[in-house]
């Protein structure tokens, strides 16, 4: 029977912000939940954000410090998993083999994290064999950059090949905890009013100069619990991501298709930029994501977005030559958002990225027909890999350069901005020749039938 003791110690804060923090009690059940959640992520291969959300729902009585301790511990261990596995004295070759990730080993990995965060180990049965000195000793030994920076070998090789020296700084940035940014919903408020309202409620935010829709949350608040969120005054969205919708150059009254809309982060932003005038058709291959989009649109007061599930080629064919603007926020490796989703490091593979590259080119090629002559599209990813970004655009232009031209590219380097890594390219379709063929361009609304 494991001892269930409560242990007073200080709270682990991210390296950059560590400083004075009042001691909190470390409950056995909280650490046991961290271990169970790590098992869910590494053995059952579940998404870290879903696992954390599930634990919060399971423990509604946790206060904000418990929630913070829990979430930070899970994310820090996931982020530096290979490193802590190594410090725990476990065989590196097994760090990502679900069958080798036993509960006993998960406790050891957590201990490595806890000790490296500057704490004493608690008196729990599971950790009595752990030797603090051995962990500290291992942390001083030289290991490969991939182990030290906690990335898989295949990823280290691919990123070195694709980015060269730039990868070193990006890798370090992507190992930092993500900060929280919100997008002001200009359909309901403006940045100054929201900033003032949040300050009155005790939430401190900062503006960012060149992105007019952003507020930076200065601390980790439970944003989804805020009244202003429930009233639809803002959405949580990284600063880089907020640069994509304006890049499409939409205007009120336009016909816009957001073809990989997901849960609609960018659809809602497009609607705000269009002042809720015109039409946005939001497509996706997953109905549950579109359901979420509809809920969010309701909260945000967005009336111009219509969702359509892509069930086959017909959905796309009906939209041929329809849109003034098309957003292709394609499925990607997510290599630019590892700060937010560090578990992706342990779930991705080289083969999966190669598969995504084929899918992205297919989407770009087939869906570009949705844009009417004279219209524009934006191809976007939250990746930093040239093979998913500029090389895709160049490949498309090599085949379709007679009809399309590249207007502008946006490359957001996380190491330079401190925000997520993003890529976007805006392409313009040649205007129609004044021939009878142009009469084929539909001027009426395409049916959803
Ligand atoms: C990067 S996510 C989109 C995120 C979304 N635009 C946002 O801002 O919240 C890519 C989306 O593409 C969708 N998807 C995958 N394959 C697709 C396809 N063949 N056609 C359209 N959407 C697809 C995925 O379901 C996913 O929701």
Q: What key attributes describe this structure?
A:
449 residues; alpha/beta; Alpha-Beta Plaits; Rossmann fold; four-stranded antiparallel β-sheet; 13 strands; disordered N terminus; binds S-adenosylmethionine
Describe this structure in words.
With 449 residues, the chain is of the alpha/beta class. It folds into 3 domains: 6-150, no CATH class; 181-236, Sun protein, domain 3 (Alpha-Beta Plaits), CATH 3.30.70; 241-440, Vaccinia Virus protein VP39 (Rossmann fold, 3-Layer(aba) Sandwich). It contains 19 helices and 13 strands. It has helices at 28-42, 48-58, 64-79, 81-87, 103-116, 132-140, 145-148, 153-163, 166-174, 191-200, 227-230, 244-247, 265-273, 287-300, 313-317, 344-347, 350-367, 390-400, 414-417, and strands spanning 6-9, 24-27, 181-184, 205-207, 214-217, 234-236, 255-258, 279-284, 305-309, 323-329, 371-381, 404-412, 422-429. A 7-stranded mixed beta sheet has the order 9-8-7-10-11-13-12, sandwiched between helices. The chain has a 4-stranded antiparallel beta sheet with strand order 4-5-3-6, covered by helices on one side. A hairpin with a 6-residue loop joins strand 4 and strand 5. Helix 1 packs antiparallel against helix 2 (48-58). The longest helix is centred in the C-terminal third of the chain and has 18 residues, at 350-367. The termini are far apart. The model is unreliable at 1-24 (pLDDT under 50). Bound molecules: S-adenosylmethionine. S-adenosylmethionine binds at residues 259-266, 283-286, 289, 310, 329, 331, 363. InterPro entries: MeTrfase_RsmB-F_NOP2_cat (IPR049560), MeTrfase_RsmB-F_NOP2_dom (IPR001678), RCMT (IPR023267), RsmB-like_ferredoxin (IPR054728), SAM-dependent_MTases_sf (IPR029063). The active site is at 382 (nucleophile). Residues 170-430 form the SAM-dependent MTase RsmB/NOP-type domain.
């Amino acid at each position: 029977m494991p001892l269930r003791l409560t242990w007073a110690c200080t709270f682990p804060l991210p390296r950059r912000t560590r400083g004075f923090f009042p001691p909190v009690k470390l409950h056995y059940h909280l650490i046991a939940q961290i271990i169970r959640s790590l098992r869910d992520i590494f053995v059952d291969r579940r998404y870290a954000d879903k696992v954390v959300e599930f634990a919060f729902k399971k423990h509604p009585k946790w206060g904000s410090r418990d929630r913070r301790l829990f979430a930070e511990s899970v994310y820090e261990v996931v982020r530096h998993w290979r490193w802590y596995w190594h410090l725990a004295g476990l065989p590196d070759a097994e760090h990502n083999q679900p069958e080798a990730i036993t509960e006993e080993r998960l406790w050891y990995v957590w201990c490595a994290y806890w000790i490296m965060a500057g704490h004493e180990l608690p008196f729990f049965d599971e950790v009595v064999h752990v030797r603090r000195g051995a962990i500290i000793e291992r942390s001083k030994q030289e290991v490969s950059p991939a182990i030290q920076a906690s990335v898989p070998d295949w990823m280290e090789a691919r990123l070195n090949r694709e980015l060269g020296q730039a990868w070193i700084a990006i890798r370090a940035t992507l190992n930092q905890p993500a900060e929280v940014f919100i997008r002001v919903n200009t359909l309901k408020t403006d940045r100054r009013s929201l900033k003032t309202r949040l300050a009155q409620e005790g939430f401190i935010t900062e503006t960012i100069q060149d992105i007019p829709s952003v507020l930076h949350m200065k601390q980790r608040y439970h944003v989804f619990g805020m009244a202003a969120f429930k009233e639809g005054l803002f959405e949580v969205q990284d600063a880089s991501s907020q640069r994509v919708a304006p890049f499409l150059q939409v205007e009120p009254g336009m016909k816009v298709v957001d073809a990989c809309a997901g849960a609609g982060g960018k659809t809602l932003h497009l609607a705000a930029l269009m002042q809720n005038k015109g039409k946005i058709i939001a497509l996706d291959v997953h109905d549950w994501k579109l359901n979420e989009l509809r809920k969010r649109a309701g909260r945000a007061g967005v009336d111009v977005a219509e969702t359509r599930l892509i069930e086959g080629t017909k959905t796309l064919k009906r939209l041929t030559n329809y849109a003034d603007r098309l957003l292709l926020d394609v499925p990607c490796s997510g290599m630019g958002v590892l700060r937010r989703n560090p578990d992706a490091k342990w779930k991705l593979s080289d083969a999966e990225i190669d598969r995504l590259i084929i899918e992205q080119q297919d989407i770009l090629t087939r869906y570009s027909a949705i844009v009417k002559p004279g219209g524009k599209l934006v191809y976007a990813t939250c990746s930093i890999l040239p093979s998913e970004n500029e090389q895709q655009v160049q490949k498309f232009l090599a085949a379709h350069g007679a009809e399309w031209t590249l207007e502008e590219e946006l490359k957001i380097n996380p190491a330079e901005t401190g925000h997520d890594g993003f890529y976007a390219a805006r392409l313009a379709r040649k205007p129609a020749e004044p021939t009878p063929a142009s009469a084929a361009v539909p001027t009426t609304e395409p049916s959803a039938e």
